TrEMBL record:
One of its GO terms (molecular function) is protein disulfide isomerase activity. Keywords: Signal. It comes from Candida metapsilosis. GO terms for cellular component: endoplasmic reticulum. This is TigA.
Amino acid sequence: MKSIFWLLTLISLVLSYSPSNVIQATDKNFQQIVTTPGKFTFVDFYADWCRHCKKLSPVVDQLSQLFADYPQIQVVKINGDKDGKKMSKKYVTIGYPTLLMFDDSGKHVEFDGIRDVESFSNFIQQLSGVRLDQSKQDEVEEIVQEEEQEQDAIVSLKPESFEQQLQGTQYAIVTAEGSWCNFCKEFAGVFNQLANTVYARNKNILFATLTVDEQGNGEEILDKYKVNRLPALILVKDGDLANAVVYEGDLRRIDKVIDLINDFTGTLRDRTGELKEGAGVINHISDSIANANGDYQEVLAKLDDINGETVGFYKSVIESLMVDPNALNVEYNRIRTILDKDVDKLSGVAIDSLKQRLNVLDSLVLYR
């Protein structure tokens, strides 16, 4: 009887391995997996509704492949929404995803660094004492290089397809530069900072370069848009090239360029990429709420004709005011606490969303 039990247990463990070498654990077998003698276990606690978990999932799959030939290391996922609720309740203290490293005694350490393959790999090697061989280290380096290439947000435009490449973009910020131009080379560093740091979270803004070479390729674009000196910025909204804005002013001061792009795109970023106070606030809607005297139906109707990232939140605010105005205080304090204590656990997109909501509530501070 005992042999049948262990056979069934073994079969369940074998079946729980996915093609990525990740073990899919459940409440029933989790403790057995993480206390397997001689094993170190990296565990990803996730939830189906968590978009950060979905983004992280392929990274954990890559990690499992990296350690596939190292029997001392096992990589595990457990679903806190389904058959891993009990274990997730026990080990998840802040939110999803939660990443823990267990030794075979069941003791664990939480990972709180950058969530990429290189950082995970270093974390596992440090705690387990297991060292990847050179071929695996090279594999990690290749993954890092691929990620860096993907993170480069600047697109290189070709003169013959310049207009086609800008179609379908909400906002495009294009640097027109010359291959012989020394200041263009200097500005390239500033432009890279704009694309990959200041506006890295703004997926609705395309950053691109058009390079005119010494043979004159690309000059027809400069002539068409009346660009008289290099470098210059060509700013395009909604692919409307007929109304493109050409800026040939001061490009030496990054703060001035940020102000230009903020004004053009309606974004409020500082040079670190964080949102400024007032980002997300729709002033006339906040004023309308202030003057509504409890009658918010007209304000709700106005919101139906407005586009913006915080329109949905404004609707939620109005609904709260109609039911329980004190709920706004509760929401304000909740967001403030998260940003004060847990900001290092949030993605940039989540931070932006929370800051915009806080700004909206701040704009209503007199009416809360």
